[in-house]
Amino acid sequence: ANITVSNHGGNSSSPLMYGIMFEDINHSGDGGIYAELIQNRAFQGSTEFPSTIDPWEAVGNAKLTLQNTTVPLSWALPTSVQVAPGNNFASGGSIGLQNPGWWGISVTPQPYSGSFWALGSYHGKFTAKLQSAKSSHVWASVEIKSKCQKGEWVEHKFHLNPRVAAPDTDNIFVLEFQPDQGSLNFNLISLFPPTYKNSPNGNRPGLMAGLKDLNPSFLRMPGGNNIEGDIFGYRWKWNETIGPLSQRPGRPGTWGYANTDGIGLVEYLQWCEDLDAEPILAVWSGVYLNGYDNDNPYDIPEEEIGLYVQEAMDELEFILGDVHTKFGALRASLGHPRPWKLNYVEIGNEDNISSPLSYASYRFKAFYDAIHAAYPSIVIISSTGDLKAIADNSATDYHEYARPNIFATQFGLFDNANRSHPILIGEYATIEPNTENPLEPVSWDAGEPRLPYPNWVGAVAETIFTLGAERNADIVIGASYAPGFQNINGSQWAPDLVSFSADPAKDVYSTSYYAIQLLSAHRYTHTAPFTSDEGFGPAFYVAGVNHGTNQYTFKATVYNTTSPVPFNIDFEGLHQGAKATLTVLNAPSGLSENVPNGENVVKRTTTSLTAQKGGVFSFQLKEYDIAVLTTF
Ligand code: AHR
Predict the structure, then answer these.
(1) Which terminal Cβ of the chain has fewer Cβ within 10 Å, N or C?
(2) How far is the CA of 450 from the centre of ligand 1 (A)?
(3) Quick check: 233 and 290 in contact, CB under 8 A?
(4) % of the chain with per-residue pLDDT over 70
(5) Boundary of a domain, candidates 385, 417, 448
(6) 23 lines ligand 1 (CB under 6 A)
(7) CA nearest 429: which of 463, 474, 392, 475?
(8) Which ligand 1 atom is at minimum distance from the Cα of 353?
């Protein structure tokens, strides 16, 4: 293609073009990026009563019983475990409980910070240990003098400092005592390795660094389906995710496991600050996915919706209100006198699927009217999922899960979108492979095989789709792949952008991750109009320029061709001898994927180019190349 690119006349480009979406799915939060090592630390969020004891096990001759004691640790954490001497307990011995972590615990020479609460009388010492599950070899152990007081919950803190790294993650955490005065109850038993930026109650450093390397401009949270709740009362409640962990009851998440809410609203906003990303906050929109009884969605009736609108308004006041407001003062009391910034609020998630009629007739409007009146500058996003927002002055959240061939047809999807309704692409991913029918839509049948991990042809097709978004970045706010994370031992949805296990050395960044990383690293202030002597396909491309300069970015990808595509690009204002860098990603085949314990299949080459006669840069791209050319 012979292309002439102009440095003026384009549209201004969204500064948020590439972002991330996070919800607790696939143990992406609990058992995932949240660094807590103890699984089921406070017996929360279960649909069983009083809760579930899994995966705790007795140590020594202990008998473990879940109890709701007369004196609870807190209103939020009423259930604790009683550890009592079992029938064959020999006096003088130790009893306790052990926890396998989230499918293992990584033990390396670094400080681990732990704590637990105990109820009962005890004058002796506790022992906390990290040990091998197989050999019982102890990697680290510490004695903690009891501070127990009869009838009161007392917190104990400790540190574990392994001297060597365990060879694998098949390790357990053990807490023991010598029951001189009978049983004790325990709750909120917690152990953290060092976290990202050493934040208390923080995140896994490697996974956060992986997010940071994506250069994300926004964080869409806290769902996805997980904000919605399966049945009545199970919604994500912002005010139950803040404050000390003892004040967070947790909830039954939407993805089949309990959520501790250890990552709560404040933690999400802290991520935004840490990642320098704009929050796109979803508020609950008045629908439970499976109703009262796991059947149909349950919509809050119109006459009751005001209660939940108020809940959202309180949340916004908590985030934005000054310290003289009720919820601004609450924020300040938690150590954040300064309001956060919040410019985008989404009403619900995929309401076009869960319950479109009530959304269109009263739910969206009720939230919209209240939020818009109080915060007129906030961009309100409807979760209609299509390209039509349902109120003036609002944006819409478009989701797409597709096969590569379908994404490859969508370069022009946003070209004719209504310019008065901005579009967030809040979720997208290639989830199933191509079939013989080139335009076969994705199948949602449970039996239809998903890609276990993103593959390269999927990444290329997604790139065609997001380049289409880039050239419409006057109206597209930005795009985020979903889901972001999976723990490979506890996953409900494949494929995912990043896969991980208990071993931080084995984080897997997918093919799609590397494609997005390259595209996101190169931004520009304005699209740069161009003319070309060839239409799009097999090559798809977009050009951008930093306004007022001749610094250009040209992004391209090539899909389904056997012959390489030559490019001769003439950038306005650049002359013979001008310099550029061409970065190209590709993989051995379209089906290449990054898998646990495998090598990164994505190969990156960087070449310096010099403009030839007439200021033209010439290069070739072959099938499945994803390329970025930057001039300087
Ligand atoms: O990303 C996984 C799920 O897909 C999200 O929770 C939901 O919004 C969508 O259906």
Answers:
(1) C
(2) 14
(3) no
(4) 100
(5) 385
(6) yes
(7) 463
(8) 10
| Domain termination residue (choose one: 385, 415, 434) | 385
Note whether 227 and 349 are within 8 A (CB).
yes
Record the tokens describing residue 523, joined without a space: 């931004």
The answer, yes or no, to whether any atom of ligand 1 lies below 6 A from the CB of 32, is no
* pLDDT tens for each residue of 471-510: 999 999 999 999 999 999 999 999 999 999 999 999 999 9
**Number of domains composing the chain:** 3
Residue nearest to atom 3 of ligand 1 (CA): 224
Q: Which two tokens stand for residue 617?
A: 């840069």
Q: What is the CATH number of the domain that holds 533?
A: 3.20.20.80
Residues 495 and 612 in one domain: yes
Parallel, antiparallel or unpaired: strands 508-509 and 498-500: antiparallel
Q: Reply yes or no on whether the pLDDT at 102 is more than 90.
A: yes
Ligand 1 centre to CA of 384 (Å) is 13
- If asked whether residues 185 and 245 sit together in one domain, one would say no
**Same domain? 143 vs 240:** no
Q: What is the pLDDT of residues 406-449, one digit of tens each?
A: 999 999 999 999 998 999 999 999 999 999 998 999 999 888 88
What are phi and psi for residue 121, nearest 5 degrees? Answer: -100, 130
Pocket test for ligand 1, best of 22, 23, 491 (most atoms within 8 A of CB): 23
Average pLDDT over residues 575-591: 98
Please identify which residue in the block is written with the tokens 């933690």. 267
pLDDT in tens, 252-268: 999 999 999 999 999 99
Domain limits for position 521:
1-18+426-632
Q: Which of 20, 21, 25 to mutate to test the pocket of ligand 1 (most atoms within 8 A of CB)?
A: 25
